[in-house]
Design brief:
Order of helices and strands: HHHH
Number of strands: 0
Helix content: 55-70%
Structural class: mainly alpha
Shape: elongated
Number of helices: 4
Largest sheet: none
Mean pLDDT: 80
Strand content: under 5%
Radius of gyration: 16 Å
Length: 98
């Protein structure tokens, strides 16, 4: 699945389908996705701390990390949607080159 499709699909679980009706709703949705991003990032870090480069990969841990990455991605793409931006690979590549 590409990033644009992921962003569109993640809107299904957003309040009002990601549409901002007024400033209060914009503030509420923005706060929700910002706090959600922080919470999921913390969960991802907790799982990453369990990784040992000296041991064989633990598939249960790999699956947990994969799920947490999906959760973080959902919230980050939600933030993009709230501020009416669309993920663009070209812009990402420009940022990486700077």
């Amino acid at each position: 699945m590409d990033y644009k499709k992921f962003q569109k699909m993640s809107m299904r679980t957003m309040p009002f389908g990601g549409e901002n009706f007024n400033f209060v709703e914009f503030h509420n949705i923005l706060s929700n996705y910002a706090l959600g991003t922080l919470g999921e990032w913390h969960e991802l870090q907790s799982e990453l701390k369990k990784v040992s480069l000296k041991e064989k990969p633990n598939m249960e841990l790999v699956n947990k990390i994969d799920a947490e990455l999906g959760d973080v991605s959902h919230y980050l793409f939600g933030l993009l949607t709230v501020v009416e931006e669309e993920f663009d690979d070209c812009n990402l590549q420009k940022i990486e080159l700077l």
